[in-house]
Amino acid sequence: MSDSLEYYQNQIALTRTELKNLRQKLAALKHEHSEEIKTVKTMLSGFQCANCIETAAAYISNQQSLDTPSPSEDISYSPIGYIETTFENKPAVPGQPLVLSNAKGVVVLNTDAFNNPEHALSDLEDFSHMWIIYHFHSTASSGPRPKISPPGGEKSQVFATRSLHRPCPIGLSLVKIHSIEGNKIIFYDVDMINGTPVLDIKPFIPLYDFPKPSYSYMSFV
């Protein structure tokens, strides 16, 4: 029994000695490594790049210009459909939808936009109204006007009116949904001419789309 105890005591002492030696070697390696790092830093500090800062700045600027779209970049959209109405020209169209609130129109979705257009409309029946975003194709060629003379009013800046003559000839109308049949949406409150290209439709949500109104008479033109 005493022989076994002495054996294990010797093994423990030997292990402690080995651990001490390992610690000393690690400390020596750490010191050697730190000295090598200092040497490398000293060597690198001797190198100079006269145009490094300018080159880096030019590279960053170039990358930013590639990632940022140009303000003059053209944006192109394809209509998702068109509007069918009884109004064939602009003079016949009501100035505001409520003038002929019972007039019906139809949004016809193109099959090019969706393979199954009716699937894109399946949940729209849950809403009473929708927004139609469309292109003023009949007035696009006449160009924008910075000031507009509304009927019975004085000239006002175009962005304070609902004029057709805008820098981007895009129309926005809130209409009442009557029914949906396949790829067609029948609606009331028409104020577009026949064949008007449709860019998008969105449901009207009163909680978000009906803030407390504050407007002037000019807002209705």
Provide a descriptive summary of the structure in words:
It is elongated, with a radius of gyration of 38 Å. The strands form two sheets. Strands 1-2-7-6-3-8 form a six-stranded antiparallel beta barrel. It has 221 residues and is an alpha+beta fold. It is 31% helix and 21% strand. The chain contains four helices and eight strands, in the order H-H-E-E-H-E-E-E-E-E-E-H. The mean pLDDT is 79.
Give a brief description:
The chain has about 220 residues and is an alpha+beta fold. The protein is about 30% helix and about 20% strand.
Unreliable sequence segments: none
Oligomer: single chain
| Main sheet makeup | 6 strands, antiparallel, barrel
By secondary-structure content and strand pairing, the structural class works out as: alpha+beta
Beta percentage is 15-25%
Distance from first to last alpha carbon: 110 Å
- Give the tally of β-strands: 8
What Rg is obtained from the alpha carbons, in whole angstroms?
Answer: 38 Å
Count the DSSP helices. 4
Mean pLDDT: 79
Q: Fraction of residues in helices?
A: 25-40%
Sequence of secondary-structure elements = HHEEHEEEEEEH
Organism: Pieris brassicae
InterPro entries: TrmO-like_N, YaeB-like, YaeB-like_sf, YaeB_N_sf
Keywords: Coiled coil, S-adenosyl-L-methionine
Protein name: TsaA-like domain-containing protein
Question: What features would you highlight for this structure?
Answer:
single chain, 221 residues, alpha+beta, elongated, YaeB-like, S-adenosyl-L-methionine, coiled coil, TsaA-like domain-containing protein
